[in-house]
Amino acid sequence: MEGHRFFDLVRYGTADVELNAYVAHEVGSGYTLLKGATFTKGKAEYFAIPQGEIDASTIAGKPTLTQNPGY
Predict the structure, then answer these.
(1) Structural domains in the chain (count)
(2) What does the pLDDT look like over 5-62, one tens digit per residue?
(3) Which domain range does residue 7 map to?
């Protein structure tokens, strides 16, 4: 089940609250690797679609895929 919790948080709509609270706790505990990290709702839930895939999806000169918001 490792790695599935992120997708559960996204599905429930609480990923931004949970992950930002986790980062704040870790940074407050002295773990500086996460310093400055934030989870941005509306962007961080999805990966960018590669431009090559958008270009390859064209039908009649018009792409059928559109980029995810925020990218």
Answers:
(1) 2
(2) 999 999 999 999 999 999 999 999 998 899 999 998 888 888 899 999 999 999 998 9
(3) 1-39
